[in-house]
Design brief:
By secondary structure, the chain is mostly helical. About 75% of the residues lie in helices and about 0% in strands. It folds into 2 domains: about 100 residues, Tetratricopeptide repeat domain (Serine Threonine Protein Phosphatase 5, Tetratricopeptide repeat), CATH 1.25.40; about 130 residues, Alpha Horseshoe (Serine Threonine Protein Phosphatase 5, Tetratricopeptide repeat), CATH 1.25.40. The chain contains 12 helices and no strands. α1 packs antiparallel against α2, α3 runs antiparallel to α4 and α10 runs parallel beside α12. The two termini are about 45 Å apart.
Length: about 240
């Protein structure tokens, strides 16, 4: 059998932790978890990850603890702390966005996601921010993730996360995806990548057929496409879009 968390072992970990030897503590606790997972051990390792400045790993271990024991008081308390820190980082990101400091805002919302990697509102905000920064591929990935997590919340029986005016995160993320496909398509068209632009604008129209501007953008791209030929980049982009 593997190592067990004996009384001596627990005292040893406590002493090492008091001395700041968190990496050694992590090694010992990971050995115990590999042999016999438990909610308490996951919470203990989550707190060690926090001390080592690894918030994402901290969250995932705490999430594992709650899966094993949904009413675990230590895990629930730690989750509340992580959510509070995550929400604060999100607020800071919004402030920086309003101030036009997009790079700093990106760092803040990424920090929010490190603290709470399953919060769809954070992916939604970062997806919007990526679009403003013209990182369209990253924007699409985050918005798709927002839809996935928001849908999971709704499927679990909850109302789902909501943005302002009662619009669900899923609805907002889908709307933002249309804008991203459109902006990405226009961006490609402006660079002479007409085949790619047409693929993206087609995808935007599939999601939202009521906006005439999308048809106009596609028509313009189609005219240019008639004077150019598709290439490997177009094929690569088409394959990527099929994944979303």
């Amino acid at each position: 059998e593997g190592p067990q968390p004996t009384l001596h072992g627990c005292v040893h970990v406590a002493c090492l932790s008091a001395l700041g030897c968190y990496t050694e503590c992590l090694r010992l606790v990971s050995g115990w978890l590999a042999d016999r997972p438990s909610s308490d051990l996951y919470v203990l390792r989550a707190r060690l990850y926090w001390q080592l400045d690894q918030p994402a790993a901290c969250y995932h271990d705490n999430h594992a603890a709650l899966l094993l024991e949904p009413l675990s008081a230590p895990a629930t308390t730690l989750l509340s702390q992580l959510e509070a820190g995550s929400d604060l980082a999100r607020q800071k990101a919004v402030e920086h966005i309003l101030g036009g400091r997009l790079t700093i805002a990106l760092a803040k919302i990424t920090s929010a996601l490190d603290l709470h990697p399953r919060e769809p509102r954070h992916y939604l905000l970062r997806g919007i921010l990526y679009r403003r920064m013209k990182d369209f591929t990253a924007s699409i990935e985050d918005l798709v993730r927002a839809v996935e997590l928001g849908s999971e919340e709704e499927s679990a029986g909850g109302a789902g996360a909501e943005e302002e005016e009662g619009v669900s995160v899923v609805e907002e993320a889908l709307g933002q995806l249309v804008l991203t496909y459109n902006d990405f398509g226009v961006h490609c068209s402006s660079r002479g990548l007409q085949a790619e632009a047409t693929l993206l604008l087609d995808r935007a129209i599939q999601e939202e057929t009521g906006d005439s501007r999308l048809y106009l953008n596609r028509a313009g791209s189609g005219e240019e496409l008639g004077r150019t030929e598709g290439d490997a980049l177009c094929d690569s982009l088409k394959k990527k879009l099929e994944l979303f």
